[in-house]
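Box 3.1. Reading complex inputs
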Amino acid sequence: TQLLEQSPQFLSIQEGENLTVYCNSSSVFSSLQWYRQEPGEGPVLLVTVVTGGEVKKLKRLTFQFGDARKDSSLHITAAQPGDTGLYLCAGSYGNKLVFGAGTILRVKS
Amino acid sequence: EAQVTQNPRYLITVTGKKLTVTCSQNMNHEYMSWYRQDPGLGLRQIYYSMNVEVTDKGDVPEGYKVSRKEKRNFPLILESPSPNQTSLYFCASSHRGEKLFFGSGTQLSVL
């Protein structure tokens, strides 16, 4: 079974701070996705990265795929309370998508 | 509106009483999948289906059954539920394994 480890598990920060969430594996993935989940809802896709070394930006969010396609990071600049939620990374291999355990982010105003 | 619809949202049942959680999507997606979400374990895949009449086991299939008789529907069946199947369940669909669309979840408690 492919494993994806996310860190940190929990993150509580003040509005305006920067943060980075990491997603690591010993396995190579064909692509990696980041999802955000709010309480009472299903995860919603934020981005998919496919190429090793790829960097994608979504407003204040920056996603990076490692050169070897084994790891990824999500960086949020100037976090806002609306960024609060569970962030999940998911690696794709074959017909399967394996999820990390998630990072719970709380941004206090 | 494009969506994945799961029912029910909440379900409390007793050990051994058969239940079905329904899932329907209106996007004509070939791929559908069921996940369970438990604290600290993330989302784990139970079963998935690449198309009608094609299903396969995920990482945690024990105690579950699925069927894919129509493209839009992918019900999850628990023939004899046990307390360790208490969890939050999500159905998802996608077009050829691309972006996954998730339902809003079913919180199941087995007493």
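In summary: The mean pLDDT of chain A is 93.
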